[in-house]
């Protein structure tokens, strides 16, 4: 019975162990070929513990290394750096936490910018409201200054009209009184009484008081 292969999650876990135990960075070709870390090659540390860091001894086949690496990169558990044509992969124990913190910082900065814009917009609206309120008060003052003289002029015009009407009424009264006197002197009291009745004039018309 053939041995069951590792799941993707198991491969991811073992690949992370490789990075974090060795604290080294690797090229893709090194991981696929299960090469030793450069420090081990440089110092020729061919001990059992060093060999255990190779992907092959972690049970990860060369064909699946790239897929596992990409999934770890997508989840920000492994970071890749490109220097010229060389691409290196590394992972620190706190890399995921650091990535989350960096994302939180970006979110907070964006929220701060939004709040700053909201505050600036609110301040502008308040300033606009205060300007409109001051303008409203100024217009009311102008309206009062326009209304008062008009009321005075209206009262003066009304009084002038009353005086003119009184003068006209007195003149008409004088004319009618003169006519009635003429009627009494020339046609008798009957003619004057008939005219007064015809015009609807009261008996004391001559004493009309204005």
UniProtKB/TrEMBL annotation:
Coiled coil: 91-142
Domain of life: Eukaryota
Family annotation (InterPro entries): Mnd1_HTH
Biased composition (Acidic residues): 201-210
Residue stretches making up the Mnd1 HTH domain: 52-91
Keyword match Cell membrane: no
Alphabetical list of Pfam families matching this protein: Mnd1
Keywords: Coiled coil
Region annotation Disordered: where it falls in the sequence: 191-210
Protein name as it appears in the record: Meiotic nuclear divisions 1-like protein
Biological source species: Rhodotorula toruloides
């Amino acid at each position: 019975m053939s041995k069951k292969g590792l799941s993707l999650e198991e491969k991811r876990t073992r690949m992370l162990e490789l990075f974090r135990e060795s604290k080294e960075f690797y090229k893709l070709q090194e991981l696929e070929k299960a090469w030793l870390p450069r420090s081990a090659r440089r110092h020729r540390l061919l001990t059992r513990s060093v060999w255990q860091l190779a992907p092959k001894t972690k049970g990860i086949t060369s064909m699946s290394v790239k897929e596992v690496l990409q999934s770890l990169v997508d989840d920000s558990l492994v970071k890749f750096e490109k220097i010229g044509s060389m691409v290196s992969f590394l992972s620190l124990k706190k890399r995921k936490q650091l990535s989350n913190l960096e994302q939180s910082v970006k979110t907070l900065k964006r929220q701060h910018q939004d709040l700053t814009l909201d505050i600036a917009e609110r301040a502008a609206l308040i300033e606009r409201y205060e300007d409109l309120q001051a303008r409203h008060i100024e217009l009311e003052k102008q309206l009062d200054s326009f209304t008062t003289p008009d009321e005075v002029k209206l009262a003066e015009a009304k009084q002038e009209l009353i005086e003119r009407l009184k003068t006209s009424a007195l003149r008409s009264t004088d004319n009618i009184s003169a006519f009635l006197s003429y009627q009494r002197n020339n046609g008798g009291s009957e003619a004057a009484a008939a005219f007064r009745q015809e015009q609807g004039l009261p008996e004391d018309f001559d004493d009309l008081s204005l």
